[in-house]
Amino acid sequence: MDTSLVDWCASEVAALRAAGTYKTERVLESPTGARIRVDGREVLMLTSNNYLGFANHPRVVAAAREALARWGNGLGSVRFICGTQQLHKELEETIARFFGAADAILYMSCWNANEGLFQPLLLEEDAVLTDALNHASIIDGIRLCKAKRFIVPHGDLAAFESALKEAQACRRRLLITDGVFSMEGEIGPLRELADLCDRYATTLVVDDSHATGVLGATGRGTAEHLAVRDRIPIHTSTLGKAMGSAAGGFVAGPKAVVELLRQRSRTTLFSNSLPPAVAASSLEAFRMLMEDPSPARKLQQNALSFRKKMTEAGFTIPKGIHPIVPVLVGDTAKALAMSDALFRKGVYVSGFGYPVVPQGHARLRCQISADHTEADLDEAVAAFKAVGREFGAI
Ligand SMILES: Cc1ncc(COP(=O)(O)O)c(C=O)c1O
After folding, report:
1. Any catalytic annotation for residue 309?
2. Alpha-carbon torsion 308, 312, 318, 319, what sign?
3. pLDDT tens, 332-364?
4. Catalytic: which of 135, 225, 241, 361?
5. 216's torsion region: left (phi>0), alpha (psi -120 to 50) or beta?
């Protein structure tokens, strides 16, 4: 082996440590939930995508356990060879029905869904337009296709329009946006983008990972929230956040699109099928939300309540409604130190700084769950106030 590779890795890691951008992982000693155990003590979890509190819900866990007993641990194969069970078909049908799509295809993750989406649908003579702040999986998926790329400044509708004009020279156009941008909890302008797509004969695709089960009166996501459900022809999302919190992703859309993805999308053709226990747990999550959407409403109320309390306490929170609640503190070192101080006070919340967010925009990213009680939220706000005063953030 060339030992210079190991030396180079070590020097890169040392540079990350020196720059203060080295990531550490806290080790949980319990399932995730409103309260978790870390380092031998209980802390309030304020930084998880377990939006509906389904991650450790008895029905979700029981569904996974039963599936393990009935369908086994896995299939040892990709879907089209010998890796499709009734369970996978049922989950796809349920997802399609839930979103009012003609069909849906499962992937191991939304990362895989996004990575496998563009290459089968777009050829060299086509164009793809993408918001500059779209998720990394969209960026990587686009890199794998040969279409002409237009990376448009975040949320800039005029720039989208001029890119669409330029892209008229291409055979076909696909425009992709996150439904919710995860650093801000900011909702994408789907109505305006749908208008542009209509005007310039372009297919709109929305990655709704942070909105499935989260936004809209029945948890159907950003399009439901903005009342544009019939205007989003294709959408991708994850099962790893609100809908069971384990793993899995999907693309939902027209039958022919999904059929072509089944034939040509490399992340499904060359990767194992979703483990039965994971498929069953997400299926149960969809059933629960369809039976009773009240957890989505509770989540939305919790988010509004926390946003109000934190704003009243004097913190800088960008306007919005999403359960991602960024608390802006400016300096990266301050955000990380505040995250540590909050943890010592029993509140687990992540600090994000440069280069994940622009210089000077460091923040603590709170994420609210339907599982949080009002008392949990009050406890979090009290800890924030104490730490905020200590660090001069309020
Ligand atoms: C917008 C968006 N798309 C895709 C993903 C990837 O989802 P998964 O964890 O299912 O790969 C994420 C997860 O962070 C996300 O926020």
Report:
1. no
2. positive
3. 999 999 999 999 999 999 999 888 888 899 999
4. 241
5. left
